[in-house]
Amino acid sequence: MKRISLLVAMALAIAVLVVPPSSAATYSLLDGPSGGGLSSDNVEWIRHVPLAQDGVGGRLIDGWFYANDQNKIMIFDIKNPEDPQMVGFLPMPQEVYLSREDLDGNGELLVVPNDITGSLYIVSTEDKTNPQIIAELPNATSHTSSCILDCAYVYNSNGSIIDLRDPSAPKLLKEKWGEGLPATSAHDVEEVAPGRVLTASQPVMLLDVRKDPLHPKVLAVGEQPKDGRFIHTPRWPGNGKDKFLLLAGETNIHPQCNDGAAAFMTWDATKWKKNHTFTMIDEYRVSNGTYIDGSPPADLSCSTHWHEAHPSFHNGGLVASAYFEHGIRFLDVSDKGKITEVGYFLPFGGSTSAVYWINDEIAYSLDYNRGLDVLRWTGKL
After folding, report:
1. What pLDDT was estimated at residue 25?
2. Which contiguous run of DSSP H or E holds residue 12?
3. 3-state class of 181 per DSSP?
4. Pairwise CA distance, residues 322 & 363, whole Å
5. Is 31 a residue whose pLDDT tops 90?
6. What is the 3-state secondary structure (H, E, C) of the chain?
7. Is the Cβ–Cβ distance between 81 and 359 less than 8 Å?
8. What are phi and psi of 147, to 5 degrees?
9. What are residue 272's phi and psi, to 5 degrees?
10. What is the pLDDT of residue 95?
11. What proportions of the chain, in percent to the nearest 5, are helix, strand and coil?
12. Is 2 helix (H, G, I), strand (E, B) or coil?
C-alpha cells in the first residue's frame, strides 16, 4: 500500500511538471509543506492535519469532530472549522488496516469495535479533553457498530445487538436484528431518524425499531439491481424525509474504472409508504484519466466509499464522496435524482476514506495515507 502511494505521489509530481498552461482554468495546483493536491476551481485546500496514518472514520456530533485511526480516538474543537484543534486523545488497542470505518456515538459515548481483540469498546466522551474506556464487551466486535435510540442499543453490521442502556455494563443479546428478515447482516446500518434504521445490505432495508429493538419491523425494501452489487454506505438526508436515498457500493482491488467499478447511487424514496419499495434512479462512477484532468490512470479500488450530503441538501443538492485514489468527488443531485460531478480534490499520495461537512463551506477529508485535510467548497449550491 505504501509503495503504491509513493508511486502515485511521484506520478502526480511528474504530471504537474507537464501541465499545459491552458489547463489552468480547469484545476489549480495547491501547494504546502505538508499536503495539498489538485482540485477543481471551486475547491480550495486550506490545511493538512497529520494523524500519523490511516485516518479512517469520523463523526460530527454537537459541534465536536471525532476521528479515529488504527490505534487512537481523537476529539477536535472546531470552533474555528478551518483550524481544528485536537483537545482529546485516547490510545486504543491496535487495529487492522482499513478497519473501524464508521465511528458513531451520541456526544457522551462512542462505540468502537476492534477486529483484533474481538471486543466492542465503550468510550466516555463527556470530558472532551479526557476520553476514557468505560467498558469492554468481549465477542461483540463487527466491521461497523452503530448507535440506535440515542445509544440505548448498538446494532452491529454482522447482525448482533448490544444492550447499552447501562453503558458501563453492556450486554450482548442473542437476538439478531436480521433474524427472519430479507437480509440478516449488512456492511453498515444508519439510524436515519429516531428508531428508523437503513441498512447497507442485499436488499437494502428500512427497519422500524421503535417498539421492539430486538425484533425490528421491515417498512420498505430496496429493489436490488440485477448485478447483485455490494452496498457499502446507506444515507437518507433530511432525517429520512428527503425524496432520495443516497447509497454507495464498493469494489476492492479494482484498479480500472471502466469495467464495473462500484457506483454512487440515487434511489427513489417517494413511494415507500405506498408500495414499501425503493428503486434506483441514477448512478455515477469515476473514470481513469491523466491526473491533470483530475482522474488518476489507475486506482486500487476505483470505488466510492463514505459520502455525505451537504447541510443544504433538500430533494437534491450537493454531495461529497470519498473515492480512495480518486480523492473527493463533489456531486450534484438534480431534483430528478440525476448525478453530475461538479468538483474534485485529488490529494498528493492519498487514499481517501471519508468526507464530512462541518458547515456550509468546510469539509474534512479523512485519508488512509495522509490523515485529515481541510477543504473549502467555493462553488454554487
Report:
1. 32
2. helix 2-17
3. coil
4. 11
5. no
6. CHHHHHHHHHHHHHHHHCCCHHHHHCCEEECCCCCCEEECCCEEEEEEECCCCCCCEEEEECCEEEEECCCEEEEEECCCCCCCEEEEEEECCCCCCCCCCCCEECCCEEEEECCCCCCEEEEECCCCCCCEEEEEECCCCCCCEEEECCCCEEEECCCEEEECCCCCCCEEEEEECCCCCCCCCCCCEEEEECCEEEECCCCCEEEECCCCCCCCEEEEEECCCCCCCCEEEEECHHHHCCCEEEEEECCCCCCCCCCCCCCEEEEECCCHHHHCEEEEEEEECCCCCCCCCCCCCCCCCCCCCCEEECCCCCCCEEEEEECECCCEEEEEECCCCCEEEEEEEEECCCCEEEEEECCCCEEEEEECCCEEEEEEECCCC
7. yes
8. -70, 135
9. -65, -30
10. 85
11. 10, 40, 50
12. helix
Question: Residue 272: what residue type?
Answer: W
C-alpha grid cell for residue 324? 480512495
Amino acid at the residue 178: G
Distance between CA atoms of residues 59 and 66, nearest Å: 5
Sequence-separated contacts (24+) of 254-257 with Cβ below 8 Å = 254/299, 254/300, 254/301, 254/302, 254/303, 255/298, 255/299, 255/300, 255/301, 255/302, 256/288, 256/298, 256/302, 257/285, 257/286, 257/287, 257/288, 257/299, 257/302
Determine what percent of the chain is predicted with pLDDT higher than 90. Answer: 74
Amino acid at 160: S
Which tens digits make up the pLDDT trace of 347-376? 998 999 999 999 999 999 999 888 899 999
Distance of alpha carbon 324 from alpha carbon 249, whole angstroms: 13
> Which of these, 202, 211, 221, lies nearest to 272 by C-alpha position?
221
